[in-house]
Amino acid sequence: MDTALFKFINGLAGKVPFLGKLYSGIANDYFLPIIVVLILVALWFGTRDPQRRKKNQRVVLIALIAIGIANALVAITNAFYFRSRPFTVLPPNQVHLFFYRPTDSSFPSNFATVLFAPAITVFMTDKRAGIILLAIAVIGAFGRVFIGIHYPSDVLGGAVYGAFASLVAYWLGKLFNPVLSWLLNLMKTFYLV
Amino acid sequence: MFLKLSLAYSIPVFLAGIGVLQGCAAYNGLSGLLFSPKKIFSYALAVIMIGLALASLFDWNWRYATGIIQGAQQAEFSFLGILLALVFTAILASLINRSRFHTTYKDAEGYDVLRDRTFFQAIKQRFGRRS
């Protein structure tokens, strides 16, 4: 089922090579993650309402924690489990590869994990920004399958890892609320909050 | 090669960071962070800088077919790029606006003080209060 779905999605890229090329830019390792970072910066500095700003700045810090946890979860998984990439398993004529050949484990998609972790974290506080970040995460996750470097279950796994990291980060944020408040107050001293 | 890749990644992040800060400062009325009193200039600068930076990251794989920056380093460079953008913005805007604001400051806290004074003026004011 996973392979069939991969072949279907990746096959679409094969039919329209222009889209494959376009997606190799959109879903590369840097383009969408930087957009996410810029949105987090915008949430930090671009919120007019002081009450909402307070919430947003706290959630940006929690989102950064979530990204850290998500990376750690992926690293731990990769230490015990390795899944080969689709282009190494399937015959070359069944994969339309629009990307370089990553050598790390296919599952979970680190890319999807890192995009979903802040998206879900922000969504819990700011629905509008959260939906934008979730849309970016979905586009990115789809793109990784489309260009032939992940199975659908890899990016789905990444989304689950991201959601889990987000929940853990939220819990940690509540547990260490005084530390976050102290950090925000320290930043306020230097006009950063 | 690593230095080349690091710069190829960090410079667009730095530029995009400046762009986002100019856009946010204009939207949020933080005149002390703006490079120009005209908001339209700040928005235009934001669009140009973010656009250039994203275009440069978009075609990464076509320029560096095998050039990879590992996730952890990517996070470090992103943080550094944004931090440098913030420092650069604070310094340049303080220099540009040094004679623009008067000393009749309104009560405010956090970065809201940058609505009517520059970063340098705000730091100087805080330091002056303590001494």
Provide key terms for this protein.
heterodimer; A: 193 residues; mainly alpha; Vanadium-containing Chloroperoxidase, domain 1; 9 helices; elongated; B: 131 residues; 5 helices
Protein architecture, described:
The complex is a heterodimer of chains A (193) and B (131). Chain A has 193 residues and is an all-alpha fold. Chain A has a single domain, classed as Phosphatidic acid phosphatase type 2/haloperoxidase (Vanadium-containing Chloroperoxidase, domain 1, Up-down Bundle), CATH 1.20.144. Helix content of chain A is 75%, strand content 0%. Chain A has helices at residues 2-15, 17-26, 31-45, 50-80, 86-89, 110-123, 127-146, 152-175, 177-189. Chain A starts with a helix and ends with a helix. In chain A, 48% of the residues are buried. Chain B is mostly helical. Chain B has one domain (2-130). The mean pLDDT of chain B is 90. The longest helix of chain B has 27 residues, at 2-28. Chain B is 68% helix and 0% strand. At the A-B interface, helix 2, helix 3 and helix 4 of A face helix 1, helix 2, helix 3, helix 4 and helix 5 of B.
Could you name the ranges of chain A where pLDDT drops below 50 across 5 or more consecutive residues? Answer: none
Which bin fits the share of residues in helices of chain A?
A: over 70%
List segments of chain B where confidence is low: pLDDT < 50 over at least 5 consecutive residues.
none
> What's the mean pLDDT score of chain A?
95
User: Structural class of the helices, strands and pairings of chain A?
Assistant: mainly alpha
Order of helices and strands of chain B: HHHHH
Radius of gyration of chain B: 17 Å
Largest interface: A-B, 31 and 44 residues
Strand content of chain B: under 5%
